[in-house]
Amino acid sequence: MKQDRKDVACLVLGVLLLGAAALMLHLTLPVPRTLPFVCLGVGAGLLGQGIGQMVQRQALQCDPELARRQAIEVQDERNVQLAQRAKARAFDLMVFVFGALLLVFALMQVDLTVILLLVGAYLLVQGYAVYCRIRLEKEM
């Protein structure tokens, strides 16, 4: 029942954001020029998420065998391991891509605040990776 409320809330919020974006674009209210487009993107995403979850729940209610198989798939240790390994490889790639992007931005002489924000985000991610590593080593 809780999941149902969450899906409906996601759906309603998506519709409201889409409506607000359309209103801002139509009336050209004195808001930042990008705000309506951000509302459009987030609203469309939330609307799609809400509709998708509702359709999935309806399909699973109609077919209990499918619901059982999906529950097994989600909790299967092999699938969990595969997802974790994929995330680890994606993180390894992200470290190099992020570093290269920082270097390119610095060579392009992009505004210093943009570079410092990216460096801060990069260091935050790396710091969190170190924290997780230390925590996992203590557990094992």
Give a topology summary.
Elements: H1 2-27, H2 35-62, H3 64-75, H4 77-107, H5 112-139
Helix pairs in contact: 1-2, 2-3, 4-5
Name the helicity range.
over 70%
| Unreliable stretches | none
Order of helices and strands: HHHHH
The major pleated sheet works out as:
none
Estimate the mean pLDDT confidence. Answer: 84
Write down the domain tally: 2
The SS-based structural class is mainly alpha
Give the termini distance in whole angstroms. Answer: 37 Å
What's the quaternary structure here? single chain
Radius of gyration: 21 Å
Strand content: under 5%
Using the alpha-carbon principal axes, give the shape. Answer: flat
Quick one: how many beta strands? Answer: 0
Number of helices: 5
Description:
It contains five helices and no strands. By secondary structure, it is mainly α. It has two domains: 1-75, no CATH class; 77-140. Helix 4 (77-107) runs antiparallel to helix 5. It starts with a helix and ends with a helix. The chain crosses the membrane at residues 34-51, 90-108, 114-134. Keywords: Membrane, Transmembrane, Transmembrane helix.
